[in-house]
Structure of Ubiquitin-like protease family profile domain-containing protein:
Amino acid sequence: MSKLLSHENELLDRPHVFSLRLLRVSTRSQIVLRKLNRVKKFCKDDLLIVPAMELGPISIDSKMWWYTLKQIATPLTDQHIDAMFYFLRMGMKLSGSNHTRSTTTECYFDYKIRHFDIANWHLDVYNSAYKTIRDVVVMEAIQPHLNIIPHLLRQSKVLKFEVPDSPLSSRICKGTPQQTNGGDCGIFIVKYAEYIHEMKISTMPNPFDTKLARHNMAVQIYKHAIEKTDVHCSQSIR
């Protein structure tokens, strides 16, 4: 006991020695923590979906795909947009509503979607971010399409009537819900298309609940993908 007390007194008499020992202990603790942090908390393989979920021409093999789709303000990829439009087209066919024909285009449209009124030779433009992307900028980007679409229609001969030589007229439709961040462009494009197809664009909620819309879309597509995957697996077993 006396030796221990004398040793403590010696440390107190030499504070620099005591501080040095504490520093060594602290350094060792930091090294241990660094080693623990380097340990992988999860494996990348944990994110894989095996077998991949098939959604038309789209194959979904990562759980992060669903997280991105559901997470508000997170930009969607081209594959997300393709999957959502594929899902909408399937819903249109099953519902039997044939009053509108629809197709998809390149995701170049980004923050805007266009509704082509063939009968009136007119293109309606819906901009979900007019506070950020001004109408003048949008119309400048639209102008080349007003000239090229008639030309493509004449060459493809998909219309049963003679295609006019004049460019399309256009306008930017006002009063539609607007996004409040830079990451929800994709869901607005899809929901605009859905309401336009149902001819209910004027009834689209404003302000629009993007969190609920993304959640519902993720759940519906997931359910559809699960059903298609189960059918595919059962057919493979047979």
Observations:
- Residues 66 and 125 are 29 Å apart (CA to CA).
